[in-house]
Q: What sequence folds into this?
């Protein structure tokens, strides 16, 4: 009886412990509205920029299948840009900053760095190199595809058209953020 109980216990622990690790990331749909329909939007020189910050875990989970963004204090912000001019404009995710109430500018984070940061078991040190980070963890392919697809990246927005994507920033240490949408181009 002892011989059967020990392997059964080991198998049970393996399946119970492993079942949480088997949960696969699910890509969630993104429904984009026109920029003027977002509460936080700004119209300047025929360009409308809207920002929808996922400042609660519930908002983040509506769009990303991971709670690690909030646990690691990363703020995803959906940015929608409408170009109503008769010429194209170029915008890159690094052009956006989060402006806190005290005037501090928090730069946007590249989605690849965000993915590495939320995929690692232990937070990165400031001395970690890209290659070291990549060697430490190979991420969930669905999550990588989702973040890559949703990231703002580099956009060339043609005349009278729009585009959108997420920019990521660190949550301010203190509750000093302005109203949602405190993201402006440099």
A:
């Amino acid at each position: 009886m002892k011989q059967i109980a020990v392997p059964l216990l080991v198998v049970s622990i393996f399946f119970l412990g492993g079942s949480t690790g088997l949960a696969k990331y699910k890509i969630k749909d993104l429904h984009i509205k026109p920029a003027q329909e977002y509460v936080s939007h700004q119209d300047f020189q025929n360009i409308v920029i809207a920002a929808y910050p996922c400042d609660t875990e519930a908002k983040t989970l509506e769009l990303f299948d991971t709670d690690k963004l909030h646990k690691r204090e990363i703020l995803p912000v959906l940015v929608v840009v409408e170009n109503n001019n008769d010429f194209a404009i170029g915008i890159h995710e690094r052009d956006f900053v989060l402006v806190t109430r005290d005037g501090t500018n928090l730069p946007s984070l590249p989605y690849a760095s965000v993915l590495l940061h939320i995929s690692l078991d232990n937070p990165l040190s400031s001395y970690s190199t890209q290659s070291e980070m990549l060697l430490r963890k190979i991420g969930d392919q669905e999550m990588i595809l989702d973040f890559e697809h949703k990231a703002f990246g580099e956009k060339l927005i043609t005349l009278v058209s729009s585009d959108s994507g997420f920019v990521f920033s660190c949550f301010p240490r203190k509750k000093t953020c302005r109203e949602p949408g405190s993201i402006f181009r440099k």
Summary: The helical segments are 2-21, 57-63, 68-71, 111-119, 130-136, 141-150.
